[in-house]
Amino acid sequence: MYRIFLTLALLWSTPSAPAQQTGRSEKHGDGTSRNEVLMSNDPDSDDRVSSDVDAPEPRPHVRVSTVATNGMPKDIVKRGSTWNFGPGSLWTHNGWQYAAYWDDQCQVSVARRQLPKGAWSVISLPGYKRTENIDRGKAGPKSQGFGDSHEKVAMGISADGVIHLAFDHHVSTLHYRRSKTSVATHPMLHPWTTDLFEPVKDHLGGPTIEAVTYPCFTRDGDRLLLYLRLNGGSGSADSHFFEYANGQWQINDFDASKLIDKHWSGGNGTVNAYPHGLIVRDGRRHLTWCWRDTPVASTCHDLCYAYSDDHGKTWLNNDGVLIGVLGKQFINADSPGVAVFRIPPGTRYQNGGSMTVDARGRVHVLMRGEDGQPAYFQRDPGTKQWTRGKTDVLGTLVAGDHDRLYVVADGNVLFAPAEDPSKLSVRYTGNESLFTDSKPSVDAMCGDLDRWISVIGQSGTTVSVADYDVAENDVSDSQP
Known about the structure:
This protein is mostly beta strands. The protein contains 1 helix and 33 strands. It has one domain (62-469): YVTN repeat-like/Quinoprotein amine dehydrogenase (Methylamine Dehydrogenase, Chain H, 7 Propeller), CATH 2.130.10.10. The chain has one helix at residues 254-257; strands spanning 9-11, 35-38, 48-51, 62-68, 90-93, 96-102, 108-114, 121-125, 154-157, 163-166, 176-178, 213-220, 223-233, 236-245, 248-251, 258-260, 272-281, 284-292, 300-308, 314-316, 322-325, 339-341, 354-357, 363-368, 374-379, 386-390, 396-400, 404-409, 412-417, 423-428, 441-442, 452-459, 462-469. The protein has a 5-stranded antiparallel sheet, with no helix packed on it. Strands 12, 13, 14, 15 and 16 form a 5-stranded antiparallel sheet that branches. This is Sialidase domain-containing protein.
C-alpha cells in the first residue's frame, strides 16, 4: 500500500504543509555519551570496548543493521500478503530500541539493541504458534484465517517499562502478552530471555475480549492506549480504546472502552471506522478515519476528525462541539460535524492512510483519493479549515523539526518544506531491497527522538532496520 510512485522530481500540489517530529539520540541507555560499542550479540554481556575519546564520530546519513535472519518465510503465508510488521513493530524507549515480528518458528520474536549502534539480541517467545488450525475466535473462517495482512504483531511500551504485545487477530479472541515491569526502563538489569514475558492472555485484567482486529498501541504521557476494532468485521464494527497506567489496565472491558459505534441511519444501517492513526501532540489526542459500509473497499466514504483535550474522556468535532464521551456517548456516522470532507461511496477512495500532527498543531492525512491516486489533507488549527491537494506518493507521514514533513515509502524518504510544500524532494533512496517481502514500519516513537527516522522491514528471512539522518543540516544532500 505504501508504494512510492517513482520520480525523483516529485510535485506536491497542496495549499500548505508544515511539520514537526524528530529522530534519534546518540546517547546510550545510561544517559552517557561514551563511545561504547557492544561486541556481543547479547547487550548484557561484558564483552565491551570503551573509549574516552572526546571527539564525536562523524554522523552517518544512513545506518543499516540486521536484526535477525529468522523472519517468517514468505511461502508460509498467502501469496502477496504483507504479513509482518504492524503498528509499533519498532519502538524506542529509554535509549534502547525494540522490534517485534513473526519468525520462522511461527512465533513472535522480540529483539532489542542499545542505541545508537548496539548489536541486536533476539528471543522467540514460546507458548503460541501461528498455525492454520488454531481456534482464534468465534467469527468462523475469518477468525481462523492464516497468513493475511490482518495478523501482524503490534507492540507498545508503557512508562513503567512493560513491553506489551498483541498479535494474530482477524475478528479473533485477544492474544495479549506483556513483559515484567521495568524490563525496558532498566534493560541492563534484565538479561534478554524468554522468562521476561508472561503467558498469552485473552483479557486485559477484565473479561475475555472477543472479535479483535487491528490492535495498535499509542503513548499519551504516562498512559498507554490500545485501539481495538471489536464487535464485528469490515462494514459493521465498533472502535474501542483501552488504557494502561500505574501498572495495570485501568480501562479493560468492552463497555468502558467503546468510543465509536457502528450503527447509523444511512447505507445498510452499519459502518465501521478505519482510523489513519491516533496522534497525541501537546496533550491533545487527534483521531482521523474514514467510514466503510461493507467488506467491499469501494464503500469507503468521508474523511472524519475528532479530538480530545482530557486524555480521551470527551471528544469534540472539528468545530469544538462535543460528540463523544468514552464508554457513554458514542460517535457514529450521524454525529454532527464528524465528517470534515464529504466523499461519497462508490469511488476508489480507500482506508489505509497515514496521519501525523506537526508542532504547530496542523493535522496531516495521506491516503488514496477518489481517483485511486494519493491525496493529501491538512487542517489549520487557527481557522479550523481543512484543505486538500494531490501528491505522487503514498507512505507513512512523520512530522519533523524545522517545519518539515517527511514521507517514508518502501525504503525511500522524502520531505517537503513548510514554506513551499509543492517542492517535495527526495531525501534518501536506494534501500528498497531491505523491504521487498514486507510492509515497512516506522519507529512509533520517532517523534520523540533526536533527528533520526528508523524503519523496519524484511527481505527473504532477513529482518533489517534502516536509520535515516534527518538532521536540519545538509538537507540538500539527498543520498547516503
